[in-house]
Amino acid sequence: MTSALSPAMDVLNRVFGYPDFRGSQRDIIEHVIGGGDALVLMPTGGGKSLCYQIPALVRPGTGVVISPLIALMQDQVDALRTLGVRAGFLNSTQDRSERQVVEAEFVNGELDLLYVAPEGLGVANTQRLLDRGKISLFAIDEAHCVSQWGHDFRPDYLGLSMLHERWPDVPRIALTATATSATRTEIATRLQLTDARHFTQSFDRPNIQYRIAPKNEPRKQLLDLLRSEHPGDSGIVYCLSRASVDKTAEFLAQNGIPALPYHAGLDSRVRAANQSRFLREDGLVMVATIAFGMGIDKPDVRFVAHLDLPKSVEGYYQETGRAGRDGQPSTAWLAYGLQDVVQQRKMIESSDGDAAHRRNASQHLDAMLALCETVTCRRAQLLAYFGQRDEAGSCGNCDTCLAPPESWDGTVPAQKLLSTVLRLQRERGQKFGAGQSIDILLGKQTDKVQQFRHDELKVFGIGADLRDQEWRGVVRQLLAAGYLAVEGEYGTLVLTETSAEVLRGGVKVMMRREAPQQRVRTPRTRA
Ligand code: ADP
Ligand code: ZN
């Protein structure tokens, strides 16, 4: 240790009670104390808050923190106050007199940190207020919310470029846990952070074991997982719809696992109560839509399970990242099936956005599907997605590393399936979903087959060598690879520009063998 303690280290020890900085905290903090702008990309749990809190305490004036997490402001401010930090917040939950107290404190220079909601900054009153005090820095938390292509877009964030115009001499630090290099560039552009130094910390979460399983009976699969590997553990289960949140929570409770629901359809008091029970009690399972979790800091979440496919790799990473913040072994488990692909494509197609939005959503989904279907290390694929390819390799702590999936040459089945779709369309002018195409291939005499006389098609029964489940895997993987597409309300299968290559025999289609209910042992420590 050097003789004179730096002011930053002094605050870290004295105020926060931590002996040392983590990762790139020291560099970031020194840079901002020196008046520089910064764009910080650090995974969830990496310790972003100190990166602006310490400079705010060291620099003269008040650090203004822009955060979309209004529901957490009170907690954040309370936590800081117990440490003796003079903190306050301004947001729409306050009444006039509460606001006035905070405003006076700010103007009188009695605040180290002031949290404000992004919509507040657009208001002329707030801007005039800020002019009356001394600002030490602006911290823009959850900065990816400025990205129109991201999954957390907040229109109010677009207005934050005015910070630089109105207060050009105040250093700004933007922080996020989720950004590809493209999003990073977008953040820098939209926030006018052109001269900001970029700090990027590794996204690897070595204690999280990534597993993606074929979805058969998702609730039962989940129950097996919890009983065999996570008895008594705290965890989060993500579902796409409110209805499935309610059903799953009920199902777990009926099976003796203490579970609580969380989604936007619940009364806000119930939601708040469930959230605070989850944070305070041990061994609760929170079953939730993705409305739950942003900013949640519970260190001992032992598993995050997804019963439905996340819309993007960013979302998947952020949601699974809520597991194992304490560094202990944790599981990220996802059940994924053909229906997920059909449903998500449908949602994209029927979304309100324009063509560019839909194309973007599609690309996000494709990346997620590629992660699901990969036969190589999940972690390597995940890190590569975040531009950290060099750190990739084989991790030894994901399902594909622990039980390498067999791959098989699926070219012929792929051709059979694609020709079924082709014949239905060419010979009959019909489009059907995956179920009917598979029934035709299997040669099943269902009512629907007879009604449409599909047993007269040349392809009828030519796929009896595979099981229904295997055919669903074939369809899924063709969708993931883009050799097949789904469209419309009923999720009908259609050919794509690249289907012809497969039909012509121009490409070999390697597929992941479906191990029914593949079980992976959890190593308690990682080599
Ligand atoms: P993030 O916002 O990046 O998700 P936080 O700022 O909430 O992460 O920090 C996560 C946890 O790590 C918090 O409990 C915080 O107190 C703790 N922490 C941050 N920096 C340090 C440090 N240098 N030493 C010890 N604990 C730290
Ligand atoms: Zn791996």
Give the helix/strand layout:
Blueprint: H1 7-14, H2 25-33, E1 38-41, H3 48-58, E2 62-66, H4 70-82, E3 87-90, H5 96-107, E4 113-116, H6 118-121, H7 124-132, E5 135-140, H8 155-158, H9 162-166, E6 172-176, H10 181-190, E7 197-200, E8 208-214, H11 218-229, E9 234-238, H12 242-254, E10 259-262, H13 268-280, E11 285-288, E12 301-306, H14 313-320, E13 330-336, H15 338-349, H16 355-373, H17 378-385, H18 399-402, E14 407-409, H19 411-428, H20 434-442, H21 447-451, H22 468-481, E15 484-487, E16 492-495, H23 499-504, E17 510-512
Parallel strand pairs: 1-6, 1-7, 2-4, 2-5, 3-4, 5-6, 8-13, 9-11, 9-12, 10-11, 12-13
Antiparallel strand pairs: 14-17, 15-16
This protein binds adenosine-5'-diphosphate and zinc ion.
Structural class by sheet pairing and helices: alpha/beta
Envelope shape: elongated
Helix share bin: 40-55%
The parts where pLDDT drops under 50 for at least 5 residues are 517-527
Number of helices: 23
Largest sheet, spatial ordering of strands: 3-4-2-5-6-1-7
Q: What is the number of strand segments?
A: 17
Mean pLDDT: 90
Bound molecules: adenosine-5'-diphosphate, zinc ion
How is the biggest beta sheet arranged? Answer: 7 strands, parallel
- Percent of residues in β-strands: 5-15%
What is the rounded Rg?
Answer: 26 Å
Distance between the termini: 31 Å
